[in-house]
Amino acid sequence: MMDFCDDQNCFVCGKKNASGLQLEFSENRQNGESEAGVVFPARLQGWQNTVHGGLLATVLDEALVKAAGAAGCKCVTAEITVRFKKPAMTGAPYRASGKVLEERGRVVLAESRICDAQGQVLAQATGKLFKV
């Protein structure tokens, strides 16, 4: 089996990845939750001034995995469902968060969301993660 090791080059949270977002997630180990602030630079836009949906999905995925990590589970994503509610604008501050819902053997079910400064949900995801 492959050894999943953090070499700090993750696009979302890796401190060594100069091209990445370098997000700093805080983790609540009691509740299996993760949270990070994020500002998407213009280089990650789709339409003008609008964050590309794939980048929103990428951050939602990372929030799922970080929440599982907070719950003590090292995981990879097996399945993710993303729902986009409202466009995210480049240069604006957002909050990404994740939460573990349930553990079933090797499977972890979790949810994540990206909210604006007023707490309005811009995008959300549910995911099925496999423990590694």
Explain the overall architecture.
This protein is mostly beta strands. It has one domain: Thiol Ester Dehydrase, Chain A (Roll), CATH 3.10.129.10. The chain is built from 1 helix and 6 strands, in the order ββαββββ. It has a 6-stranded antiparallel sheet, with helices on one face. The termini are close together. 36% of the residues are buried.
CATH level 3 topology: Thiol Ester Dehydrase, Chain A
Class per helix and strand makeup: mainly beta
Order of helices and strands: EEHEEEE
Query: CATH class, anyone?
Result: Alpha Beta
Q: Which consecutive residue ranges, at least 5 long each, have pLDDT under 50?
A: none
Tell me the radius of gyration. Answer: 14 Å
Tell how many strands the DSSP assignment holds: 6
Please count the helical segments.
1
Question: In which order are the strands of the major sheet placed?
Answer: 1-2-4-5-6-3
Name of the CATH superfamily: Hotdog Thioesterase
Strand content: 35-45%
The domain count comes to 1
How far is it from the N-terminal to the C-terminal residue, by CA? 9 Å
Overall 3D form: globular
Q: What percentage of residues falls in helices of 4 or more residues?
A: 10-25%
Largest sheet: 6 strands, antiparallel
CATH-level-2 architecture:
Roll
Mean pLDDT: 95
Provide key terms for this protein.
Thiol Ester Dehydrase, Chain A; 6 strands; 132 residues
Compile the SSE list and pairings:
Elements: E1 26-28, E2 33-39, H1 53-70, E3 75-84, E4 93-104, E5 107-115, E6 121-131
Antiparallel strand pairs: 1-2, 2-4, 3-6, 4-5, 5-6
Brief overview, please?
By secondary structure, the protein is mainly beta. The chain has one helix spanning 53-70; strands at residues 26-28, 33-39, 75-84, 93-104, 107-115, 121-131.
